[in-house]
Amino acid sequence: MREEIRVDAVYGKLNCLIEGKGPGLIFLHGALGTGAAHFRDQISYFSRKYRVVAPDFLGYGKSGRRLSFEGNLYEEDAQDIAQVIRKLRLDPVNMCGFSDGAIVAMILAREYPELVNSLVLIGGQAIFDENSYAMNKTFIPIEDLPEPFQLALARHHGDPYWRELIHSYLYAQEHMYEQTKGFMVNDLDKILTPTLIAQGRTDPWVDASHAHMLNNAIQNSELIFFQDIGHEVQREKPEQFNKVLEDFLDKF
User: Fold this and answer.
1) Relative orientation angle of helices 161-180 and 147-157, to the nearest 10 degrees
2) On the chain, which terminus has fewer CB atoms closer than 10 Å, C or N?
3) Is 216 helix (H, G, I), strand (E, B) or coil?
4) What was the pLDDT predicted at 69?
């Protein structure tokens, strides 16, 4: 049975989609997405064996709005998700993060190791490089975005709020880049959680160098490349990805 609840986190109320029973499995979505949208082919599939939780980060989907975009959003999101894990009594939880969600997942595993049983990173990056900066700029001008993408953003986040969300997100990225000098996740060697790094070989947003860097820095990690797949591995080849994720989770 699928349900949605709102959880009081550190910085606001997070909407969480929940399905299934068993050990906890959290899916963390990427930029401008939602848990339900970015993991639409995983939630019900894995609910057969796990209590699946797919939250929307603050400012996204059905969650509350952010009061400020001045801080480090990833650090704040990690604190919020840690609170969700505690309040739903999921710890230790299996965690799968996509793109920005992978950044949040790494921070969680580093700062709250007692809460994380295993870690899966899809299209994850620790460094905000020139390619990341250039790709972010493709979101503007908003009027030039493909119409289906605009309609999806309006459906997931509300209209006209989705337009404000894009500008706020890009502003936050610039602010965090100045704060961190491009290092979105420091001290990767402190992550001791068993980790699977899933990388699309043709990812235009996060190239293979990021996956190798994470694999070299995170001690207990393994790396798998998906051939002829871009950034959204879990959506482009869901059956293939689900099998890989299932095999990894079966170890714990």
Assistant:
1) 90
2) N
3) helix
4) 85
Q: Residues 53-64: pLDDT tens digits? A: 999 999 999 999
Nearest to 27 by CA among 251, 177, 235, 240: 235
CA angle 37, 51, 243 (to 5 degrees): 65
Q: For tokens 């079966």, name the residue.
A: 250
CA distances 176 to 39, 69, 72, 81, 140, Å, are 26, 9, 6, 19, 19
- Give Cα 157 distance to the centre of its chain: 17
Contacts of 121 (CB under 8 A, 6+ apart): 97, 102, 105, 106, 195, 196, 197, 198, 214
For 135, residues 6+ apart whose C-beta sits below 8 A from its C-beta are 204, 205
Alpha carbon distance 96, 105 (integer Å): 7
3-state helix, strand, coil in the chain (%, to 5): 45, 20, 35
Q: For 2-126+186-247, which CATH superfamily applies?
A: Alpha/Beta hydrolase fold, catalytic domain (3.40.50.1820)
In this structure, what token pair is assigned to residue 246?
């299932």
What's the whole-model pTM score?
Answer: 0.96
pLDDT at 71 over 90: no
* Single-letter amino acid, residue 90: L
Q: How do 24-28 and 93-98 pair as beta strands?
A: parallel
